[in-house]
Amino acid sequence: MSEPVVVPESLGGERVDRAVALLTGWSRNAVREMVERGDVLVDGAPATRSSRLVAGATLEWRGEPAVAPAPGPEPDVEFSVVYSDDAVIVVDKPAGLVVHPGAGHPHGTLVGGLLAQFDLAGVGDPMRPGVVHRLDRETSGLLVVARTAHAYDELVAALATHTVARRYVAVVRGIPSATRGTVDAPIGRSPRSPTRMAVRTGGREARTHYEVVEQFADTARLAVELETGRTHQIRVHLAAIDHPVLGDTVYGQVDVRVARPFLHAAELEFTHPVTGEAMAFASPLPADLQRALAALADPRAATPSD
After folding, report:
1. What is the number of other CB atoms lying within 10 angstroms of the CB of residue 248?
2. At what angle do helices 28-36 and 16-24 cross, to 10 degrees?
3. Strand partners, 278
4. Which residues of 82-112 are buried (b: 16+ CB within 10 A; e: fewer)?
């Protein structure tokens, strides 16, 4: 643990990740990962990324950021490119593929596969070049990647102003009482487990819209749209209203009807960062989720999931 630092007046009101970066010389991305692990403390309590410091508060951190080599090309990583031009790439990510290197996943990521096909040098974070938004490892579907610094900045700004449309197909346990709804609840790191997120006071604002599309015996298929994009947002929000994603063993429970969380990024819309053209893409349900959905509609036809 570092020696306690009393926050000076000059850093009052500053975000905790920026303050620690200024005090240590570490990159904000490295400090941000420490914050997400719960390794940065304000007055003895784990800070959140959006925490604003108060002059006179006590700031501490555990250890130093992990130093990892920048990712390199990995031509064996399999994924589908559904669109590319000089500014953007739209990828259809398979379930099981991690988007970028991180703790426990230094290799075999989507970023490595992208670097084998595209030059992304100098685009965004060197540890996750071109990545402007992510999908969880077991979530399949669409995401957009920037090929230039200009495209990266424009897409990050579009995400911040909620002008990128991201729509998902999800199957949840139980049937929501309201046909349509919005979960508007802040999300932050769980105080009980640093690898989990939770709805909590002081978390980052998060809004998820959903609509019930189809009902089964004890589950429902939802169309879900993100307004914000927090880590595990859909899974956390749906679990918070007592309708966890089917097959989500982190925020729900094991279900033999599906081998992974039933969550697929099915539609993606954004304004092209160079041409201003409206871009729209759709991805069909992958085969494993199609089979699971058929079994839910007609349990007599159930077959084991992949």
Report:
1. 27
2. 130
3. 271
4. eeeeebbbbbbbebebbbbbeeeeeeebbbb
User: Tokens 């880590």 label which residue?
Assistant: 231
Cβ 283 vs Cβ 141: under 8 Å:
yes
Give the tokens for residue 190. Answer: 């769980």
Amino acid identity for residue 62 in this structure: R
The amino acid occupying position 236 is V
pLDDT higher at 158 or 8: 158
For residue 111, give the H/E element and its range: helix 110-115
Question: Rounded to an integer, what is the distance from CA 240 to the centroid of its chain?
Answer: 17
Whole-prediction pTM:
0.78
Q: Which long-range contacts (CB under 8 A, 24 or more apart) does 242-251 make?
A: 242/174, 243/172, 243/173, 243/174, 243/175, 243/176, 244/172, 244/173, 245/170, 245/171, 245/172, 246/171, 246/172, 246/173, 246/219, 246/292, 250/196, 251/196
Q: Domains for the chain: give ranges and CATH numbers.
A: 5-61 (3.10.290.10), 71-161 (3.30.2350.10), 162-272+284-306 (3.30.2350.10)
> What does the alpha-carbon distance between residue 86 and residue 167 come to, in Å, rounded to a whole number?
25
CA dist., res. 131 & res. 269, Å (int): 16
pLDDT digits (tens, 9 = 90+) for 169-178: 999 999 999 9
pLDDT digits (tens, 9 = 90+) for 101-115: 875 667 889 999 999
Catalytic residues: 136
- Say which residues have a Cβ less than 8 Å from residue 96's Cβ, sequence separation at least 6: 137, 138, 260
Angstrom distance (rounded) from CA 198 to CA 13: 25
